[in-house]
């Protein structure tokens, strides 16, 4: 695990050009996210860009709206990108997924199967769980596991802004959607 003097963590030697690009896109996503929340989306937004920096797909979390527990921002965006490119495998695109928070256990599986080559996220799962109570799942050493599969990951990009959006989501009493469990 690599770490820079800021908050950024990565599973490769830190590339400052990549961080600069990721910071720009993640700040845009943070900026747009409150409007999605107002429309009834969950508090997460993702976008996929191809290797030439062209936007392929963007989606928020639509679990409540679609009544589908799988419809996290990352999964929605992967589905849209594959449909747009008419291909179940995004590997030839050198695609990058940007998302406002660290992907959960389910989304890591979706990313792994999609052929995405680069992942950039904002708020860490620890912070998501502490602020919202969402259960992000079990993800042992996922960044090094992704590295083994040729997927580069940069995280904790401008996390303070992302955390404040999640804090607002909670204080505005939006739904913390999760299954009911005993014990
Ligand atoms: Zn997820």
Shape: globular
| Strand coverage percent | 15-25%
Distance between the termini: 35 Å
Q: Which cofactors or ions or other ligands sit in this model?
A: zinc ion
Mean pLDDT: 95
Regions with little confidence, pLDDT below 50 for 5+ residues = none
For the sheet with most strands, the description reads: 7 strands, mixed
- Rg from Cα: 15 Å
The number of helical runs is: 7
Query: Strands of the biggest beta sheet: in what spatial order?
Result: 1-2-7-6-5-3-4
Q: N-to-C SSE series? A: EEHEEHHEHEHHEH
- DSSP E strands, number: 7
Helix content class: 40-55%
**Broad structural category:** alpha/beta
Describe the structure.
The structure is a single chain. With 183 residues, this protein is an alpha/beta fold. The chain has helices at 16-38, 63-66, 73-85, 105-114, 125-132, 142-148, 159-171; strands at residues 2-3, 9-10, 42-49, 55-61, 96-101, 118-123, 152-155. Strand 5 (96-101), helix 4 (105-114) and strand 6 (118-123) form a beta-alpha-beta unit. The termini are far apart. The mean pLDDT is 95. Zinc ion binds next to helix 4.
Summary?
The protein is an alpha/beta fold and 183 residues long. The protein is built from 7 helices and 7 strands; from the N terminus they run E-E-H-E-E-H-H-E-H-E-H-H-E-H.
């Amino acid at each position: 695990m690599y770490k820079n003097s800021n908050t950024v963590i990565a599973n490769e030697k830190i590339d400052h050009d990549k961080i600069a690009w990721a910071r720009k896109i993640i700040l845009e996503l943070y900026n747009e996210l409150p409007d999605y929340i107002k429309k009834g989306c969950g508090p997460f937004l993702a976008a996929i860009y191809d290797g030439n920096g062209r936007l392929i797909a963007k989606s928020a979390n639509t679990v409540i709206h679609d009544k589908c527990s799988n419809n996290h921002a990352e999964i929605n965006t992967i589905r849209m990108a594959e449909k747009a490119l008419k291909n179940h495998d995004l590997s030839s695109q050198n695609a990058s997924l940007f998302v406002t928070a660290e992907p959960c256990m389910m989304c890591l599986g979706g990313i792994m199967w999609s052929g995405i080559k680069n992942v950039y996220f904002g708020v860490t799962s620890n912070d998501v769980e502490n602020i919202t109570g969402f259960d992000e799942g079990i993800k042992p050493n996922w960044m090094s596991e992704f590295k083994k599969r040729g997927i580069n990951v940069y995280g904790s990009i401008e996390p303070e802004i992302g955390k404040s959006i999640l804090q607002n989501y909670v204080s505005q009493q939006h739904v913390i959607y999760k299954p009911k469990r005993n014990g």
